[in-house]
Amino acid sequence: MDFNDIQSAWNDNKSENVVLPTNLDKLKSANMPIDKVRKNLRFELVIQTIAMTLFGFLPLVERFPANMIAPYYLIYAIMVAISIYYLGKLFLFYNRLNKTVLNTKDSLYETYFDIRLNMELYKTFTFSLLPFFILYFIGYVSYKTPKLSQLINGEIQHSKLIILLIILIAILLLIAFFTELWVQSLYGKYAKQVKKVIDELKEE
After folding, report:
1. Cβ-based neighbours of 175, under 8 Å, separated by 6 or more
2. For 138, which of 7, 20, 45, 114 is 20 to 30 Å away at the CA?
3. Residue 197 CB neighbours (<10 A)
């Protein structure tokens, strides 16, 4: 093989691999939305931990009566246990994102589905805490508004009870709606950007 044959073979090899830099550039472009997800997740973990700690001081700040402190901390302990489980899962997800290297389509797929899975985990975490917030809200309003004890004693009119139930359902639906918006804002739009990169790689 002479010099011309070697040069021809080299040129052929270059033309076969010309798509590789494009793929690498597209894989790298997925790093930006994943960095955003990582940053938002770190913010969430810090805020959730601080909020959970502050809830522990509510009886002192609000000067709960002695007979309400024990029930409050019982509910609080259950809420903390649930939070530790879910926040632990989200922390593991955060660690996985820190170690993610987007150098193949498979790693990009895996990261995308991991983001989607943890978006659902986050929503489940929020919904699992709702009963505790409702209990706290009812207890707090009962403490501040003694007339509400009529509801607990079953002395309230049926029409007013129906109105209260409708208000409660509306509040739950609003919380679910805003949770969905929050998750989509912090994670969903970046997951869509990663999915767009995956779709572009499929087309090649």
Report:
1. 126, 130
2. 45
3. 21
**84 vs 128: CA distance, rounded Å:** 12
Judged by average pLDDT, the poorest of 17-31, 62-76, 79-93, 140-154 is 17-31
The SS3 call for residue 164 is helix
Token couple for 86:
């879910």
Amino acid found at 128: S
Predicted confidence band at 69 (pLDDT cuts at 50, 70, 90)? confident
Residue 85 has which token pair? 């489980």
Residue 94 carries which DSSP code? H
Tokens encoding 115: 């983001």
Six token digits for residue 151? 């509801």
- What's 51-78 look like in SS3? HHHHHCCHHHHHCCCHHHHHHHHHHHHH
